[in-house]
Known about the structure:
Layout: H1 3-15, E1 18-20, H2 23-28, E2 34-38, H3 39-43, E3 49-55, H4 61-72, H5 78-89, E4 97-103, E5 107-112, E6 115-120, H6 122-127, H7 136-144, E7 148-154, E8 157-165, H8 172-181, E9 185-189, H9 194-204, E10 208-210, H10 218-227, E11 232-236, H11 242-247, E12 250-254, H12 259-264, E13 267-269, H13 275-291
Parallel strand pairs: 2-9, 2-11, 9-10, 11-12, 12-13
Antiparallel strand pairs: 1-13, 3-8, 4-5, 5-6, 6-7, 7-8
The structure holds adenosine-5'-diphosphate and magnesium ion (MG).
Amino acid sequence: ATPLSIMVGTGKGAQAGILIRSAEALETAHSLDTVVLDKTGTITAGKPALTDIRTIGTITEDDLLVLVAAAEADSEHPLAAAVMAGARSRDLATATASGFDSITGKGVQATVNGHAVLVGTQRLLADAVIATSALDPIAAKFSAQGKTPILVAVDGRPAGVLAVADTIKDDSVAAIAALHRLGLDVVMITGDNARTAAAIARQVGIRRVLAEVLPEHKADEIRRLQAEGSRVGMVGDGINDAPALAQADIGLAIGTGTDVAIEAADITLISGSLTGVVTAIRLSRATMRNIR
Ligand code: ADP
Ligand code: MG
C-alpha cells in the first residue's frame, strides 16, 4: 500500500478506537482467513461471579466457602476474585491460609485451619489422585449451563463444587456473526473445561472450540493452525494470551486487558469490544483495495 493509503487507514482506525502498530499490520489483516478468540475477558466480560455451591459429605456450604476463599486469597486469577467476592457478600468468617501454591491453568492449593485445601479443575484433583466421581455429575451440570465448575478437595477427599459464571459481552454475538459473513473461520480458545467452553460457544455461534488448553500451549495451537495453511488473527486480553498474540499473523489485544497482551499485539481494540476486530479487518481490506 502507498504511504498515503496507510496513513488514511491508520487514521480511520484511530478514530474508531483501533490502534494499528505498523503499516505491515494494516496490510496483513486483509489476508486473514481464521480468527481465534480467547474466551474469558475477550468473548465474555471477564468479571465472573460466584453462583452456586454444592457440598458432599458433612461440610456445610458456608464452611466450604470459607476454606476456598482463604485458599484463593493470594491467587490473581479472575475466578479467585469471584470466589472471594462471593464469600464477602455472605459475611462469612475469614480464615488465613499458609503454604499457598498456584498451579497455572489448573487451580490453587493451600493449608487453611489445618486442612489441606485443593481448588480447581477436574484434572487438578485427578493429578493429586483424588477420585472425583462424586463431584463430576455436579460439575457437568454447571458446565452445561456455561458456568465454570471449581472442584474442591479437603484433606485429600472430594468436598464440593462451586460454580462461577461470566457474562457474554453485549456485542460478541453480532461481531462473531459479522466475522462469519466476512468469510472468516472463527475459533474459540480457552483453558476452561470443554463442556463449559462448548456451552458458551453455542451461545455465541462458534462451531470450533479448542478447550482445556494450558497457558503455555495457546501459541502451539496457533502454530498448528498456521501449519494447516491458515492465516490467523488471535484476539486476547490476558498475560496467558501474549505468546499466542505474538505467534499469530496478527495479534489483536483487548484494550481493557493486561499490558502484557497489548505489548505483544499488532492491533489494540481500545473499547474492548469484538466489533473492533470486524472493523479492523474491513479497514485493512478497504486499504488494500484502494491501492490495487
Ligand atoms: P482461561 O483461559 O479461562 O482464562 P486459565 O488457563 O487461566 O483459563 O485456567 C484454566 C482453568 O483452570 C480455569 O478455567 C479454572 O477451571 C482453573 N483455574 C485456574 N486458576 C484457578 C483458580 N485460582 N481457582 C480455581 N480454578 C482455577
Ligand atoms: Mg482471557
